[in-house]
Amino acid sequence: MAAIFDALSEPVSRRVTGGLARVGQVLKSRAWKQAGPEGVTPTQAQALELLRERPAGTSLGGLAELLGVAAPTASSAVATLVAKGLVAKGPGPTRRSVTLTLTPLGEETTGRTAEWPDFLAQAVDVLDPAEQVVLLRSLVKLIRTLQVAGEVPPQRMCPTCRYFRPHAHPDAPEPHHCAYVDAPFGDRHLRLNCAEQQDADPRQQEEAWERFTTGGAPGTPSS
């Protein structure tokens, strides 16, 4: 009987992709609806959130890289945010460079737009804890793969971090090790955006990814 459904159905990967695309459409729609009186676009809202994570400011080129867009696109978004009084330009490290920071109004707006995904979190809460962990691990693998392919900007996530030691412990619930805090942790603690993340060199990233995806033989965490 399974062969009948296999013949009638698209591959699982395509159905999962379709589901993710629908979630993305909903997020974009909600972003537009909840933009507030400032009327920020999803890209502008993402720029505001990235600037809030960097209170010391960042350059236009750095913001473009974080957004994963071309410099002209980032420049256009920043110009609009400056005109709306949400972002301020300051002197950069060189004479022709600038540093971008949030204004008080920008801080207020970012605090509101950051709540857009709450409805999605409520939907995820429908999953039981074990399903949520599986989903988180799957998202980590998807996003890291897209990052390597150059489809998304660099993410401050565990698999690319110099402190990440996957499957360093025989303990099934907490097999990984974080050298930054010197403690074991499990898949439920994996992070997609960690303030302490520091990129490992390419070889270390490759070795960590191999252990993470294959469940490498447990051993003693390296220093």
Short description:
This protein has 223 residues and is mainly alpha-helical. The chain has helices at 2-8, 12-33, 42-52, 60-67, 71-83, 104-113, 118-124, 129-148, 202-214, and strands at residues 87-91, 98-102, 164-165, 176-178, 183-185.
Describe the 3D structure.
The protein is mainly α and 223 residues long. It folds into two domains: 14-113, Arc Repressor Mutant, subunit A (Orthogonal Bundle); 127-214, no CATH class. The protein is 50% helix and 8% strand. It has nine helices and five strands. A three-stranded antiparallel β-sheet has the order 3-4-5, with no helix packed on it. Strands 1-2 form a two-stranded antiparallel sheet. Helix 3 (42-52) packs across helix 6 (104-113). The longest helix is centred in the first third of the chain and has 22 residues, at 12-33. The chain is globular. The termini are far apart.
Radius of gyration: 20 Å
Number of strands: 5
Number of domains: 2
- Average pLDDT, rounded to a whole number, is 85
Would you identify the regions where 5 or more consecutive residues have pLDDT less than 50? 218-223
What is the element layout, followed by pairings?
Blueprint: H1 2-8, H2 12-33, H3 42-52, H4 60-67, H5 71-83, E1 87-91, E2 98-102, H6 104-113, H7 118-124, H8 129-148, E3 164-165, E4 176-178, E5 183-185, H9 202-214
Antiparallel strand pairs: 1-2, 3-4, 4-5
Helix pairs in contact: 3-6, 4-5
What would the keywords be for this entry?
223 residues, mainly alpha, Arc Repressor Mutant, subunit A, 2 domains, three-stranded antiparallel sheet, two-stranded antiparallel sheet, 5 strands, disordered C terminus
